[in-house]
Amino acid sequence: METQKELLKDVDVICSFLHDGTIIPLRIRMTDEDGQRQAFTIKEYRDLSGLGARTMPDGVYVADNTLVYECKICVFNRLRLIRLYYNPPRMSWKMTP
Fold first, then answer.
1. Spatial contact of 45 and 13, defined as CB atoms under 8 Å apart
2. Per-residue confidence at 7, pLDDT binned at 50, 70, 90?
3. Would you state the pLDDT for residue 4?
4. Contact 28, 95 (CB under 8 A)
5. Residue ranges of domains in the chain
6. CA dist., res. 68 & res. 45, Å (int)
7. Which residues of 4-13 are buried (b: 16+ CB within 10 A; e: fewer)?
8. According to the model, what pLDDT value does residue 1 have?
9. CA–CA dist 17, 56 (Å, integer)
């Protein structure tokens, strides 16, 4: 079984911030298995934040302050579901496939 660190992948995220503080993820950029930088536009997202500390369906434990987004991106003309996790104290974004 994979550990949480093996599940999570570092990712760059471009976001939009609304006047009320809401964060909307727009694009992600990550390094693929070949070491190439790939960028993807987020087609749809769902904010799963604010539901308390819990373990997500992909096995990632999230704290109360972790922001969680379920997103759809297009990879090779197929929609793919990913989850983005933002840790505010560390200012870091992680992703699970």
1. no
2. confident
3. 60
4. yes
5. 4-96
6. 10
7. eeebbeebeb
8. 44
9. 25
